[in-house]
TrEMBL record, chain A:
Record keywords, A-Z: ATP-binding, Nucleotide-binding, Transport
Name this protein carries in UniProt: ABC transporter ATP-binding protein
Keyword Nucleotide-binding: yes
Occurrences of domain ABC transporter (ranges): 20-251
Pfam family, one: ABC_tran
Coiled coil: none
UniProtKB/TrEMBL annotation, chain B:
Family: Belongs to the binding-protein-dependent transport system permease family.
Name of the protein: Phosphonate ABC transporter permease
Domain of life: Bacteria
InterPro entries: MetI-like (IPR000515), MetI-like_sf (IPR035906)
Organism field: Streptomyces hiroshimensis
Stretches that traverse the bilayer: 20-42, 70-93, 105-130, 142-164, 192-219, 239-260
Occurrences of domain ABC transmembrane type-1 (ranges): 70-260
Keyword check for Cell cycle: no
Amino acid sequence: MNVRAANVRAMNGGIRNGGIRFDGVTVAYDATVVLDDFDLTVEPGEVMALLGPSGSGKTTALRAVAGFVRPRTGRVLIGGQDVTALPPHRRGIGMVVQQYALFPHMRVEANVAFGLKARKVPRGEIAGRVAEALEMTGMDGFAERYPRELSGGQQQRVAIARALAVRPGVLLLDEPLSALDARLRAGMLTELARLHRELPGLSMLYVTHDQSEALTLADRIAVMDRARLRDCGTPQSLYRAPGSAFTASFVGSANLLAARWCGEDAVELDGGVRIRVRGSGGGEGEATLCIRPHLIGLGEPPGPSGPPSPDVPDMNVLHGAVTGLQWRGASHRVTVSLPPSGAELTAEVRELSSPPALGEKVSVHFAAADAVVLPPGGTP
Amino acid sequence: MPAPYSLVHGRGARWALRALFLVLFLPLFALPLLVIAAASFATGWSGALPNGATTAHYADLARGDSADALLVSLLTAAAASGLALLTGTWAALAAQALPRRVRRAVNALFVLPVAVPSVVVGLAFLVAFSEPPLLLNGTREIVVIAHTVLVTAFAHQSVTAALARLDPAYEQSAASLGASPARVLWQVKLPLLLPSLTAAAGLCFALSMGELSATMMLYPPDWLPLPVRIHAATDRGALFTGAALAVVLMATTLAVLLAVSRIRSKASYRQPS
Amino acid sequence: MTLRARAGRTGMMRAGMILPPVLLLALLFLYPLALVVRDSLSPDGAGGGALSTRAYSDVFGEASFRDALLNTIGIAAGATAGTLVLGFVLAFVVAFVPFPGSRALSRFIDVFLAFPSFLITLALLFVYGTVGMANGLWTDVTGASSGPFDFLHTPWGVLLAEVTYFTPFVMRPLLAAFAQTETAQLEAAASLGARPGRIVRQVVLPEALPALAAGGGLVLVLCLNEFGIVLFTGAKGVTTLPTLVYGKAILDGDYTGACVVAVVNVALSAALYGLYRMLLTRTGAHRARPV
């Protein structure tokens, strides 16, 4: 009791109000547009994940904030101030990248002090602030080491400490956990979430291609594809009501089936199978049906005693043959091929004591409320 | 691809640095070579620019023994670089089978000729090979052998470096497929090393073409390479003839390097770099 | 025959493959050098007579030798310092302020390295020689009968030529080192608020130090051993150890004296080369990177 609380207080006091705004930012190299008319606002204190496959423009967006790429058009604002024309060293940001980028010839201490010296922080203050940043990331006790003497996870903690020591209003994280193994990644995610709680004034822009990182850490997720922003919202809203097939497949896993509207709350799969869907006013023509695997049950739905029943018209029951079976410890993934089109549906169900055999005829069921209809496209 | 990060941001600062670069670079490195080329066509040079243009110096060369000198240089360089490549590659490959310490000693031994003045190598040849059992003084071979000794270090160094870069997985998977060491060497290692070998050969050839120090100590009267001719010409004050000879030397060296780099680019698909 | 013995034998055979090139080098390089040392200690004729250091004291007593020694060290040290500064500036611009054609430039440097050194002196004769470009320009402009540039036959001329010729030798390892400097580190430094000057001093320079040391050490040794540049300036003006070896052996026929100077030259080069290797391992300590 409590150095940590005092450190947290000190750092919070130092952090300026952050917040980032992209205002119609377009970045292009020669004829290739890598970021296309990008608009996004990150509120002060918010963690925004930029999620997308490689080449989607997410790293470019981050580098535009850092000042390493210059937009062809548009503006970037940090804390309400237009920084589009400022060089990187005058933007007051912290940045953490996948390959750590620690200075190999400096001890941990000197690495963390680097930004403070560069910003001409009074000499007497530096040692305290270095200790504070190292303590916050759990790296106190490693101050005398060289980066090469640390493990990957430790190096990334030092990189975070180095970025935090300057008390930036904005922390940019570019795939910070991609170089770590799965176990370390989980631990670091918890640490980052804690830092986010402890530093409520700090905005973070978190670039990743890993949906679980985005879902765990982000207040909001911006989904990017081919240089454009596709969707933006809280993890829950993107998961429950994705705006496009692309978002559905990138945030959580999804069964995506080509379908066609037939009525207000029903669609028809190829071959005439009719499916009742979440009532949304309906539509016309081609569509994509999206059902999350864990919302699909195997076998006939539970009897009248259970909440949903075959009498309830909102329950869809389909019949098919098992074409794939994966055991995943706590669960089984069962893939079922639906006649006549052969469209496949994967259900994720609690581990089965007697799983079905390949080729066995089974039924699957899901509630109409869990069947979401999206604009067409994105189906296999 | 993201553009490479440039350390200097201001437009003005960037251009100032580029200007500084040109101011330093052009007079120091590009000018000397241009001056030699210009002088080889000049009637005289007593102002900012040559006094007049002439091809007389080249015509003189064509009449004199200069064609012989070129031939002597080409033969010497071809023989020396071939021998050096053979010796250097052999040593680099054989050193791989040695324990670490011995290997380092062998590598140090092969680098040594770079650290010893070439003039001293020439003197040492005079001292050692002027008496039986190896009476070579006054022969053409002594020049070729001296060049070989001097350039072997470069061949050995670049092959050793290429071997260190070579992924052992190639060799191991070849061996796992049942290839004998000899087959691994001929069908896997040497083809993979080919780009480095040709580059090393080009460098050795160029260095031998320009070798002056040891040659000045050793050349017999019937074996005068180009550099010796150039020195003889400038020493008697015929600077413009020397310049023309130097242009011949540079052009030949460049042509050989270019030819070698073509082999290299043909072979380079074998080893992504 | 047991398997182990067989494996041992093939191992021996493979190790034995090193013998032919090593023996060749011993015969053609080490043996002649050993004879030079022997002859420098036998002033009374090759192989005959007792070992004596008389030749050494004779040579050390000559003023021309002391001049050559001082010239050699002075020019080599000056040229090394000059190439380090110039090489760093030029390589830095090529690596970090890229401009169209900078790749062709590194090809040009490779070619430049393949040309013999004396070409530079030859070119300087046309540029700064008594009737060269610079003086011609001066006499044209001022009307004077002769120009002010007359340093080619002094140590300064040799220094200029050596700096010119050897700068690419420093640029090459530096360019390789700069290419390995992670862009991410420069970006991290800039994002932390460091200006370009600080980034160069605290990130780029420390990481390029081993390359700088390697290039500098190589240039130092090559300058100590340089012959062509000095010979082409007209050997009367400036004498260095290598030209003294040539002069004594070929012009004077004094083989014992030449051997003495050669031994001194080799010892000097070896000592400085050793010093530079030591320096290299020491500064190289920070280079090890985590994998």
